[in-house]
Amino acid sequence: MVTDYLFCEPLLINRLREQVPDFVEVTGVAGLAQMNDDNPICPMAYVMYLGDTVNTSTAATGGSMQRMQFVTQLWAVVICVYFADGRGLGADISSEAGPLIKKTVDALAGWKPNVDIARALTRSSQTLPAQYEDGYGYYPLVFQLPVPAAIGGYR
Question: C-alpha distances in angstroms, 100 versus 70, 97, 112?
Fold first, then answer.
């Protein structure tokens, strides 16, 4: 039985490190402080837990016994790229961000982080806007992971 509700974070980080070697760094929430630094290392990916959606139907709560409920965890991968050159004119940001977005989607969509407890990751309909600040572009992708949450931990 898995007792860590956020078991997926290190698995997502490792998967991106293996499958998208173009990232200089892949980190979790602990690395968010770098986003506030003057010069984050780029290109970089941040993996963040966004919360759950809960299915409350009788079938999703394990029937009449209600010992298990299926929830969908939402995970964001925020890709950070640097696009401003020394003169502040900027480079072609889409030529750097676009391939990284595709490689990230290819690495995670349809991937099963743990065959014993989880189904495959899929893209979520929840979106977060891209942001551009101080020469950096931040591109969030949201993935969803259905997991059975049993009373006392995962089964």
Answer: 31, 5, 20
Which letter does DSSP use for residue 115 in this model? T
CB distance 109 to 143 below 8 Å: yes
Question: For residues 16 and 2, what is the distance between their CA atoms, to the nearest angstrom?
Answer: 22
Percentage of the chain exceeding pLDDT 90 = 46
In the numeric block, the tokens 């490190």 are attached to: 17
- Could you read off the pLDDT of 76-100 as tens digits, one per residue? 999 999 876 554 555 567 778 999 9
Q: Given a cut of 80, is residue 1 above it in pLDDT?
A: no
Q: Is 106 helix (H, G, I), strand (E, B) or coil?
A: helix
What are the backbone angles phi and psi of residue 142, rounded to the nearest 5°?
-115, 130
Q: Other CB atoms closer than 10 Å to residue 144's CB: what's the count?
A: 19
